[in-house]
């Protein structure tokens, strides 16, 4: 994982780790003199990492997601910078390219284990939303502004250059997808591929066009504020989120790890991180820190394992009376946690976003699978005489009672076999009786 320089105590509260950054992109001719649209030109070492990153940076601080729009001027990465590139005309993002980009993101996750840093990328681009500001893009949210140097320099975003380098080849391949959409697509896909719930996402976010449209620093949460519960509410209430959504989103800390030399939090190494994947070391919130489940809440509640990380903002979930109601529920019931998390993640990724088209762009899960065999009662008739409707309904009820259904057909002709057995028994009984 890439090393992250500690610029100042990272004001992030969701930390994670990033996988080894991909090899440098092929260099290109020096870009023109920077102008209002000039983008990232900082050395990778400047942004080592922060909590929820899984690149070669270090730990990343997961924050909270919200979405916006991808701009018409995407950026193409070179070995040390990003330069504006025009997007195709039409909707903010091309529907067919969104689906293909998702498949490429899945492949990226399989080889780099960068789930945490991609989640953090989407959250930090979206988490600047302010519900009290109506104008776009001044209100913040997921609008692709995080690709610009001025916003990457914010302390809470240290290390996210690694995430940009991971995702940039996909952006180059699919120029018809905006950065705002790509960041949120990557974040949701990372959650799902780590075993988490399906996020009800929609796309068509418009990108901001230049660094002058980036939000001011200070909108993202800190990891160790003096009053953790109050701080979390100040940040998330500003985005229009409630206590349940704060706790549910905090559960994303089930992914990733934190490194003290990069984020200021955690141990240098634990029994769960000494062997990687990615660069070994750091301290995770959970034992299986690349698996999305409800173990974060169980571990925070029990506090029995010194090798697992607990930040002040984590502990607040079981110390604050209102937060505790939800934290206790999620520790006991993973299905409830998954449901609430999926809704909160989707809401956060949409707040503040500007969509083109306004009705948004849904993407499906690919080609439909072959339909399973339907239940046909006539198959279980004997001879030329069909069964009565009453008998068909009775057989169907019995069929479903043993877990058969149009969506889950039995492996064999169960009822035909039963009918044969009954017929044989009837014959034997008749013979014995005679």
UniProtKB/TrEMBL annotation:
<dbReference type="GO" id="GO:0000302">
    <property type="term" value="P:response to reactive oxygen species"/>
</dbReference>
<keyword id="KW-0472">Membrane</keyword>
<feature type="compositionally biased region" description="Pro residues">
    <location>
        <begin position="8"/>
        <end position="34"/>
    </location>
</feature>
<feature type="region of interest" description="Disordered">
    <location>
        <begin position="1"/>
        <end position="34"/>
    </location>
</feature>
<keyword id="KW-0575">Peroxidase</keyword>
<keyword id="KW-0934">Plastid</keyword>
<protein>
    <submittedName>
        <fullName>Thylakoidal ascorbate peroxidase</fullName>
    </submittedName>
</protein>
<dbReference type="GO" id="GO:0140825">
    <property type="term" value="F:lactoperoxidase activity"/>
</dbReference>
<comment type="function">
    <text>Plays a key role in hydrogen peroxide removal.</text>
</comment>
<keyword id="KW-0812">Transmembrane</keyword>
<keyword id="KW-0479">Metal-binding</keyword>
<feature type="region of interest" description="Disordered">
    <location>
        <begin position="254"/>
        <end position="284"/>
    </location>
</feature>
<keyword id="KW-0376">Hydrogen peroxide</keyword>
<keyword id="KW-0408">Iron</keyword>
<dbReference type="GO" id="GO:0042744">
    <property type="term" value="P:hydrogen peroxide catabolic process"/>
</dbReference>
<dbReference type="InterPro" id="IPR019793">
    <property type="entry name" value="Peroxidases_heam-ligand_BS"/>
</dbReference>
<keyword id="KW-0106">Calcium</keyword>
<keyword id="KW-1133">Transmembrane helix</keyword>
<dbReference type="InterPro" id="IPR044831">
    <property type="entry name" value="Ccp1-like"/>
</dbReference>
<comment type="similarity">
    <text>Belongs to the peroxidase family. Ascorbate peroxidase subfamily.</text>
</comment>
<dbReference type="GO" id="GO:0016688">
    <property type="term" value="F:L-ascorbate peroxidase activity"/>
</dbReference>
<keyword id="KW-0150">Chloroplast</keyword>
<keyword id="KW-0349">Heme</keyword>
<keyword id="KW-0560">Oxidoreductase</keyword>
<keyword id="KW-0630">Potassium</keyword>
<dbReference type="InterPro" id="IPR010255">
    <property type="entry name" value="Haem_peroxidase_sf"/>
</dbReference>
<dbReference type="InterPro" id="IPR002207">
    <property type="entry name" value="Peroxidase_I"/>
</dbReference>
<feature type="compositionally biased region" description="Basic and acidic residues">
    <location>
        <begin position="258"/>
        <end position="274"/>
    </location>
</feature>
<dbReference type="GO" id="GO:0046872">
    <property type="term" value="F:metal ion binding"/>
</dbReference>
<dbReference type="GO" id="GO:0009507">
    <property type="term" value="C:chloroplast"/>
</dbReference>
<dbReference type="InterPro" id="IPR002016">
    <property type="entry name" value="Haem_peroxidase"/>
</dbReference>
<feature type="domain" description="Plant heme peroxidase family profile">
    <location>
        <begin position="118"/>
        <end position="370"/>
    </location>
</feature>
<dbReference type="GO" id="GO:0020037">
    <property type="term" value="F:heme binding"/>
</dbReference>
<keyword id="KW-0809">Transit peptide</keyword>
<dbReference type="GO" id="GO:0034599">
    <property type="term" value="P:cellular response to oxidative stress"/>
</dbReference>
<feature type="transmembrane region" description="Helical">
    <location>
        <begin position="414"/>
        <end position="433"/>
    </location>
</feature>
<dbReference type="Pfam" id="PF00141">
    <property type="entry name" value="peroxidase"/>
</dbReference>
